[in-house]
């Protein structure tokens, strides 16, 4: 196999997670093992940094900081939601790659990011510029196809399930038949995240919180939900509801106060929790409905992240480099392949970027119980192994310490580019 | 000193915290050391359980469960916000105490609970029933007078500061000069909790998040706040605001959508964060304002609690028993007395319950910077020692495991009582 000598470029895109930097650490660690890789660069804010030639020298960062990346939330290289649109943008990307002899491009992100990586890869091929492009999966939404699950997801649901279990202790102590807690979690179009809250229930304790999980997959039935809340309040003296932000009515309309759209045309939601809070206080007089909106905290909570998830995010980065360098693969994304045995194990595979970009993994309907508000053992069997293990953070003055990169800029070689 | 032989009753009252059960564990552990204590009972849901004679036998719980109490959030005995009003209620309390030979009453709670304990104690004295009543401080609000600080507070601000630091990593990666994060925290009438977020700033990094802390002590100045948000967005590309739920305008009106009152006549608030979110999106066009409402999670988050706080809560329980048994003290609350040296140390003292019940500790104005939106070194010097150390939780299947008491009921001796 022909050895491809040149530089690496790493980028992060889309919403950050608590383990996306672990993938960067994996890529850097593995890249250092290969003689054919000369420089290891990062692009600031994903494709935006490429267009603007804002590259940093990752090899010049201290080993301390690279190690700290493994437990630093956010996206240390910066991220973006910018979508390359014009052909000119793509041309510019290749121009920058050529100027810096980028031969390996690792892009960590979700569907849209893998789509961008795919287009860059295809353009390079068309132009005969030898470039190996490998995507690394990342999204708390867990909606990438082919891969068994996506780094970032497990840490988010571990944090949510922990929070639900803690709030349940609080509410159990407070409840006099009149206390409803609503925990609003992310999930625009799929209930993967909300479903994860089901792990808070102890084995064989179906009456444990969360008592209702309201998913985007199941249209909201006001009468049924209110009836169930009444029943739980009577039985447990309190009721804990987990609701996905993308709750919809039977016509598919979002049950939220406001809706906007982001740069990709996705609806940006919020307010399903507020909606529910108002509804419950209105229809169940004397009931206090309290709202917790975890918001960005749920994708940044590395202090309550999954070691399994963290390790997999790191290894996905390692695999990306090995695939590109040792197997001369390109235009693929790293996938996580679950073993078939009872004991949880994973291997890392590859799938074409275009298959990832054009697919969505849905929460299987058969993992949701008939009642539409709880998850069955199939979901638990899927999700529970993912949240195992805790990540040991270094603490200083009582708080976790995170990486802060020096971000030494790589000299620009090209004229400025107008975005 | 005359030895007082009889039974112990422990109760919890008011809002739970992540360390209130550690105080119960401290009381039980110490009570077992004293021969004069025969039975150790708990009252379910504070004074409600006394009125209804709903007592449980704490000595019959397994040692495992009592140990697990040290890291179980909520209030394992149940809590209440019920306020004893009628003379008849107080008479009933003494009747129940006499029926169960309760000679030691330990009540864990905030101002209102200490007031209740004081009244019970005074009535017993008036009736010549020998009873030793010691209060154990508890409130995340940190507003009890005399004591240097209150168990529960430090764990809450450690969780909040950790969350702020994590969200800052996320937002720093995302921000393009258009992202404002709002973290709404508890604090109806004082900014102790919101102020604690200041600990998220690294030493000598004044530009770290949180960029604005909006306290109930400082009337909201819309123009000044919007101007500061603009400035921060320009400098940092994102802006993180921590806001106390009790934000007020210059006339003292709460800046929130809705206001109700609880059983003690306190205003129940929520919505300062939503208010701010709307304001910012309206006045800073193109800005996305995202809201995190930590709600009950912030008082239950034992997974991110302070070991210092946890240890002090336990020791406050121990001190309560020692004071009652060994020093024959009554009608007092345990206080935490900070040492005068640079190295943080505490001793436990006692203060009359009536002094606690009738006082409030305010956040000193001189600990807030001139700008009204940040805390100075005096606050940091006060608060930072309190959040030191992490509590090691036992995990099972990826989630923390909490105590679940058997709650073996003590046989009722009296006719039922109508509340």
Topology:
The structure is a homodimer of 419-residue chains.
Chain A (H helix, E strand, L loop, with lengths): L5 E7 L7 H12 L5 E7 L3 H5 L3 E3 L5 H7 L17 H13 L2 E8 L1 H17 L4 E6 L15 H22 L4 E7 L6 H5 L15 E3 L7 H15 L1 E7 L15 E2 L5 E2 L3 H12 L4 E6 L3 H4 L6 H20 L5 E7 L7 E7 H5 L19 H7 L11 E2 L2 E2 L19
Parallel strand pairs in A: 1-2, 1-4, 4-5, 5-12, 6-8, 6-11, 7-8
Antiparallel strand pairs in A: 2-3, 9-10, 12-13, 14-15
Helix pairs in contact in A: 1-11, 4-5
What does this structure look like?
The structure is a homodimer of 419-residue chains. With 419 residues, the first copy, chain A, is an alpha/beta fold. Helix content of chain A is 34%, strand content 18%. Chain A is built from 13 helices and 15 strands. The first copy, chain A, has helices spanning 20-31, 47-51, 63-69, 87-99, 111-127, 153-174, 192-196, 222-236, 272-283, 297-300, 307-326, 353-357, 377-383, and strands spanning 6-12, 37-43, 55-57, 102-109, 132-137, 179-185, 212-214, 238-244, 260-261, 267-268, 288-293, 332-338, 346-352, 395-396, 399-400. Chain A has a seven-stranded mixed β-sheet with strand order 3-2-1-4-5-12-13, sandwiched between helices. Chain A is elongated, with a radius of gyration of 23 Å.
Chain-averaged pLDDT of chain A: 94
Number of helices of chain A: 13
Give the low-confidence spans of chain A. 257-270
Q: Structural class per helix/strand content of chain A?
A: alpha/beta
Content of β-strand of chain A: 15-25%
Largest sheet of chain A: 7 strands, mixed
Which word captures the global form of chain A? elongated
Helix content class of chain A:
25-40%
Oligomer: homodimer
Largest interface, with Cβ-Cβ < 8 Å? A-B, 64 and 64 residues
For the largest sheet of chain A, list the strands in their spatial order. Answer: 3-2-1-4-5-12-13
Please report the distance between the alpha carbons of the first and last residues of chain A.
Answer: 38 Å
Number of strands of chain A: 15
| Element string of chain A (H = helix, E = strand) | EHEHEHHEHEHEHEHEEEHEHHEEHHEE
Radius of gyration of chain A: 23 Å
């Amino acid at each position: 196999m022909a050895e491809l000598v040149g530089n690496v470029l790493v980028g992060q895109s889309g919403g950050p997670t608590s383990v996306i930097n672990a993938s960067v650490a994996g890529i850097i660690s593995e890249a250092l093992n290969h003689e054919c890789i000369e420089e290891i660069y990062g692009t600031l804010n994903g494709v935006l940094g490429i267009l603007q030639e804002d590259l940093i020298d990752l090899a010049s960062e201290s080993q301390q900081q690279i190690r700290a990346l493994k437990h630093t939330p956010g996206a240390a290289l910066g991220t973006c939601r910018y979508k390359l649109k014009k052909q000119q943008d793509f041309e510019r990307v290749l121009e920058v790659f050529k100027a810096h002899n980028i031969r390996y491009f690792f892009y960590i992100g979700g569907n849209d990011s893998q789509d961008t990586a795919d287009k860059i890869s295809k353009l390079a091929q068309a132009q005969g510029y030898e470039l190996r492009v490998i995507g690394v999966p990342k999204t708390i939404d867990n909606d990438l196809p082919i891969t068994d699950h996506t780094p970032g997801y497990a840490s988010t649901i571990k944090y949510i399930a922990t929070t639900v279990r803690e709030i349940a202790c609080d509410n159990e102590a407070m409840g006099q038949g009149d206390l409803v807690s609503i925990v609003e979690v992310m999930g625009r179009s799929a209930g993967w995240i909300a479903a994860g809250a089901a792990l808070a229930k102890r084995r064989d304790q179906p009456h444990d919180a969360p008592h209702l999980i309201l998913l985007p997959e199941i249209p909201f039935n006001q009468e049924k939900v209110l009836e169930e809340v009444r029943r739980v309040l009577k039985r447990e003296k309190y009721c804990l509801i987990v609701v996905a932000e993308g709750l919809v009515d039977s016509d598919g309309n979002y049950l939220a106060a406001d809706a906007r759209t982001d740069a990709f045309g996705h609806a940006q939601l919020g307010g399903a929790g507020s909606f529910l809070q108002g509804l419950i206080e209105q229809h169940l007089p004397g009931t206090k409905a309290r709202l917790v909106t975890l918001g960005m905290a749920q994708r940044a909570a590395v202090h309550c992240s999954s070691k399994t998830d963290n390790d997999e995010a790191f290894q996905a980065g390692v695999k990306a480099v090995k695939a590109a360098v040792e197997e001369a693969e390109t235009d693929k994304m790293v996938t996580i392949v679950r073993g078939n045995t009872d004991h949880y194990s994973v291997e890392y595979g590859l799938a074409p970027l275009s298959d990832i970009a054009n697919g969505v993994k849905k929460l299987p309907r058969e993992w949701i119980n008939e009642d539409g508000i709880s998850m069955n053992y199939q979901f638990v069997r899927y999700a529970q192994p993912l949240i195992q293990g805790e990540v040991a953070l270094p603490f200083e003055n009582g708080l976790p310490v995170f990486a802060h990169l020096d971000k030494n800029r790589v000299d620009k070689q090209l004229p400025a580019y107008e975005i």
